[in-house]
Amino acid sequence: MNGMEIPGLGYPEVLIKLKEEEKQKKSYKLVLDFRDGALSIIETNRLCEEVHREFRDLSEAEVDYLGTEINDHAYDENLDIHCEKCNKFYRPFCRLHPLFKIPDREPRKEELSTKVYSQLTLPILFRIEESKIPNAGLGVIASVFIPIGMKDGYAWLIKNGDKKFYIDGSDPKRSNWLRYINSPRHEDEQNMIAFQTNSRIYYRVIKPIRIDQELLVWYGSSYGGEFVESEDGGKSKKPVKNPFICTPRNGP
């Protein structure tokens, strides 16, 4: 042996073995599947430019971590998310129907003199303009195609065990862009649903949202009532705006 040579390293049989192990590792992609307008996880070798649009690479370890099925009695609201398609709880979410979080935009200090904070947090995928729903005020409109599986989240604590926290989102200087999302005129018009996980509220896309369509969340008893109760203990009525924040008035 000369100098710092280590037995085994650099020998042909070792290199061949390492290459074989590397080949056995699978790689994955999070993609938009144009056929159903939804997010999907596929093996890299199945990627087809005609039907898929790439979002990001996923390692085998990341994919293996996804989609652990949880029995209803073992459900933990801080760890698990219910999949409507499968009607099951998964940790952290369903592998067949994955989620991808859209982060808020981080406003720059010099921008705060031109617009209110809540509008500056709007991701580039959307725009805020007058809603097509009569008397609804401003609404959030898609500037690009938004597939099933996208989610937008509040960074506000809503419920922690038996305790409930009510955050006033009426002030556009202290809230984020989700305050502008309206309720549809009827349940069939909705394209998003609300759910809570890890003490935070998220909106999930359940129907493909086309360019120039408004983002709409139905605040029915199956969602709003799960998170917010009125001060006298009764269920709150369905407001025009977000039910997970207490506002002194409807509208932006």
From TrEMBL:
Signal peptide: none annotated. It comes from the Eukaryota. One of its GO terms (cellular component) is nucleus. Residues 230-252 are annotated as: Disordered. Keywords: Methyltransferase, Nucleus, S-adenosyl-L-methionine, Transferase. One of its GO terms (molecular function) is histone methyltransferase activity. Coiled coil: none annotated. The keyword Transferase applies. Residues 126-220 form the SET domain. GO terms for biological process: methylation. It is found in: Nucleus. This is SET domain-containing protein. It comes from Caenorhabditis briggsae.
